[in-house]
Amino acid sequence: MNHDQAFWLPYTANRAFWKSPRVIKAARGHYYTADDGQQLLDAFSGLWTSGLGHCHPAIVSAVQEQVATLDYSMGFQVTNDRAIALAREVADLAPAGLDRVFFTNSGSESADTALKIALAYHRARGEGQRTRLIGRERGYHGVNFGGMSVGGIPGNRKVFSAVMLPGVDHIRHTYSHADMAFSRGQPTWGCDLAEDLERVVALHDASNIAALIVEPVSGSTGILVPPIGYLQRLREICDKHGILLIFDEVITAFGRVGAPFAAARFGVTPDIITTAKGLTNGVVPMGAVIVREEIYQALMQGPDNAVELFHGYTYSGHPLAAAAGLAAMKVYREEDSFARALALEPVFEEAIHALKGEPHVIDIRNFGLMGGIELAPRPGAPGARGYEVFLKCFEAGVVIRNGGDILQFSPFLDSTPDELTRIFETVRDALRAVA
Ligand SMILES: Cc1ncc(COP(=O)(O)O)c(C=O)c1O
């Protein structure tokens, strides 16, 4: 075999990739530099990760300084000053009452950690029979066994169907093409879809259910925006039945929806929030699970010297990641990033919806600085058209993402209107060029 091709890329068409590799060697601000020198405008902020732009000088220097000061310290029974400081800042930013922060290294680990905390919480309160977990169709909570099981994207589940966690149900997804195509922002139709949670509760009895996990705005499945009132209704039903509500904010936290968290934007406070990506602006891998104080307190049982939760990662609270996170939090504050993103939202909305009527476009959805353009699949070749549009945009110097036939956009929090125009004009040309 060709050892230059030893790298098995994640979520990638590897055989096609190696015929024509796309390799980035540098980045600054809103642009990548490819290995052949091509400048590429990044319309996806990394992979939803880098809302502040690439190689932000404040984050780069914080990480450089940290690596020369403390590279790593033991993470069990000992920690480092950066992790303590970042936990405090994240808790301060989180909705009131969510005061405890458990660090992970990714969104997938955050999802599994949140599910385990939910189970441990109920058991600690003497309701150990509450073990059932509820996800939602089309949800994405990463690729580990817990997140995969509560996730609802068929392609992620198919091959592993036999080894899903037991005791998992899914409520209906929130999309109806007939009722909400080309909605701008939150659809007005569909609040009642939340009642599907009552169906699952009636089936199993609330006394057996630990938690519901949803993305406030579904990202990877292609930007499904919650109908007005839907999340509020989920909160009410969870409260009524003692079910913990987990918001997976791996994408939506840290400015992506024009607020520190989608919870704040929608005015719905979950019991647990999972994050990753924007926590460090993608500079060093890190995730965080932010937990309601009562949940933490319920677990603080037994002798003082006993470990309360048998869970953790070698790199939980890694000092380099924490230094990147602290610097990112400072930049979010200093650049007023969340408000800037909110102010940019109407410009983004106009720019993306201007593609209505272009070839193959059957829906356009947006919320915050998250956008999706759904294409009609080519008969007999689902996903091919989306992939070809992605390739054409790349050749034209703009990096977008396609999830099958849904084009996805996640511009920088400080994008300029001109950049947005360029992104969508490039997509327009690509749509006109593909069969
Ligand atoms: C909502 C959500 N949860 C979890 C994940 C998984 O994160 P990671 O790839 O860091 O494991 C993602 C990744 O896109 C995500 O969008």
Automatic annotation (TrEMBL):
<keyword id="KW-0032">Aminotransferase</keyword>
<dbReference type="InterPro" id="IPR005814">
    <property type="entry name" value="Aminotrans_3"/>
</dbReference>
<dbReference type="InterPro" id="IPR015424">
    <property type="entry name" value="PyrdxlP-dep_Trfase"/>
</dbReference>
<dbReference type="GO" id="GO:0009102">
    <property type="term" value="P:biotin biosynthetic process"/>
</dbReference>
<dbReference type="GO" id="GO:0016223">
    <property type="term" value="F:beta-alanine:pyruvate transaminase activity"/>
</dbReference>
<keyword id="KW-0808">Transferase</keyword>
<dbReference type="InterPro" id="IPR049704">
    <property type="entry name" value="Aminotrans_3_PPA_site"/>
</dbReference>
<dbReference type="InterPro" id="IPR015421">
    <property type="entry name" value="PyrdxlP-dep_Trfase_major"/>
</dbReference>
<keyword id="KW-0663">Pyridoxal phosphate</keyword>
<dbReference type="GO" id="GO:0030170">
    <property type="term" value="F:pyridoxal phosphate binding"/>
</dbReference>
<dbReference type="GO" id="GO:0004015">
    <property type="term" value="F:adenosylmethionine-8-amino-7-oxononanoate transaminase activity"/>
</dbReference>
<protein>
    <submittedName>
        <fullName>Aspartate aminotransferase family protein</fullName>
        <ecNumber>2.6.1.18</ecNumber>
    </submittedName>
</protein>
<dbReference type="Pfam" id="PF00202">
    <property type="entry name" value="Aminotran_3"/>
</dbReference>
<dbReference type="InterPro" id="IPR015422">
    <property type="entry name" value="PyrdxlP-dep_Trfase_small"/>
</dbReference>
<comment type="similarity">
    <text>Belongs to the class-III pyridoxal-phosphate-dependent aminotransferase family.</text>
</comment>
